Amino acid sequence: MAQHHSLSTRAIHADHEFLGPSAAVAPDISLTTTFRQVQGLDESSSHPSNPVADIYARETRPVVTRVEKVLESVIGGPTALFPSGIAAAFTILLHVRPDTVAISQGYHGVHQAIRIYRKTRGESNVALIALDDEYPQGNTLAWLETPLNPTGECRSIEHYARRAHEAGGQLCVDSTFGPPPIQDPFKWGADIIMHSASKYFGGHSDALLGTVSVRTPEEWYSLWDLRTYTGSCVGSLETWLLLRSVKTLVLRVPAQCETATKLAAWLASISRVKGSPSAEEGTTGFIEDVWHASLQDGADRFVGAGKQMSIGSACFSFSMTSEKYAEHIGHNLSLFTPAASLGAVESLIEQRILADPKADPRMVRVSIGLESFEDLKADLVAGFAKVKAMKV
Ligand SMILES: *Cc1c(COP(=O)(O)O)cnc(C)c1O
């Protein structure tokens, strides 16, 4: 489908040219593992990115082919689907086979995937360095997560792409917190883009998925080969849920980000560190500090029209003035659910220490859904009063 169409149009129609003359408008879930054989089929004329006929579901299945066409158009490069974000991350490591991995902070599970990759190569054969260390010449993979979990703050894709390329290496961006349409890492020099599609792409807390996008069909074929022969294949139901959800991605994400930006600004205004003295009665004394791309130092370098992100992410963090508040706030709200994960239509809240034992126990992460700003703000104000009244 022509890339001149808008992102929202492509999210709905990009798979249509690959469909037969009487294809179902609403795609089938299609549970089949195997397909009736076509006699005399010339397999050499068929490519797994666009199979003439499907044979066995680990190799290709129509619902996966369809969603990959849509994702390719929406993300901007050939895309392979995986059964989780971590499966996607691990396959990137197998695909690049880096001798050096440069990474700092970010999602803990990715660090565990790197640990296992190093084990498969022999630990001493794969150097692990910080993102801002000097990169040795050679096959270095710089792994940049931006915006960053859990604060939602940005780091420059352009900067790390230049550094990786100068050393002859590659830059992978974990863009989970900045899905389309708010961030396009390819535009700033990324070689590989990863998403945990369990978050915004799936968008409804009901499908565990991951994506890897690359620049060329040859690289896609390498990802397909690794997926097929490590058996890292996606179920039909999850894929079908993704195909349904990606159609509304372009509506959901900016709305969630807009509400999150307003909430971050409001929380900053009542915080001890960034606050204003004129904050409303009953709202002060709860929030210590707030982090969000729109509040970070040099925010205008990152967020706004034509910048790396059109708007700050829908997931961000704040710290409360006491551990007690941070521990109990999530269980004293009615619209936020205390739970791990992010990116879905419903707002979630989590005391960070439950996910990261090294986190400040006063720190709280929120993922903003599609409820209204006024409702979420009122829910938090009511929650503040409840945790203040608690005797623990
Ligand atoms: C959730 C997440 C992952 C891992 O994805 P799963 O789908 O849970 O395997 C990786 N990176 C980031 C930034 C995430 O938020």
UniProtKB/TrEMBL annotation:
<dbReference type="InterPro" id="IPR015422">
    <property type="entry name" value="PyrdxlP-dep_Trfase_small"/>
</dbReference>
<dbReference type="InterPro" id="IPR000277">
    <property type="entry name" value="Cys/Met-Metab_PyrdxlP-dep_enz"/>
</dbReference>
<comment type="similarity">
    <text>Belongs to the trans-sulfuration enzymes family.</text>
</comment>
<dbReference type="InterPro" id="IPR015424">
    <property type="entry name" value="PyrdxlP-dep_Trfase"/>
</dbReference>
<dbReference type="GO" id="GO:0019346">
    <property type="term" value="P:transsulfuration"/>
</dbReference>
<dbReference type="Pfam" id="PF01053">
    <property type="entry name" value="Cys_Met_Meta_PP"/>
</dbReference>
<dbReference type="GO" id="GO:0016846">
    <property type="term" value="F:carbon-sulfur lyase activity"/>
</dbReference>
<dbReference type="GO" id="GO:0005737">
    <property type="term" value="C:cytoplasm"/>
</dbReference>
<feature type="modified residue" description="N6-(pyridoxal phosphate)lysine">
    <location>
        <position position="199"/>
    </location>
</feature>
<dbReference type="InterPro" id="IPR015421">
    <property type="entry name" value="PyrdxlP-dep_Trfase_major"/>
</dbReference>
<protein>
    <submittedName>
        <fullName>Cys/Met metabolism PLP-dependent enzyme-domain-containing protein</fullName>
    </submittedName>
</protein>
<dbReference type="GO" id="GO:0030170">
    <property type="term" value="F:pyridoxal phosphate binding"/>
</dbReference>
<keyword id="KW-0663">Pyridoxal phosphate</keyword>
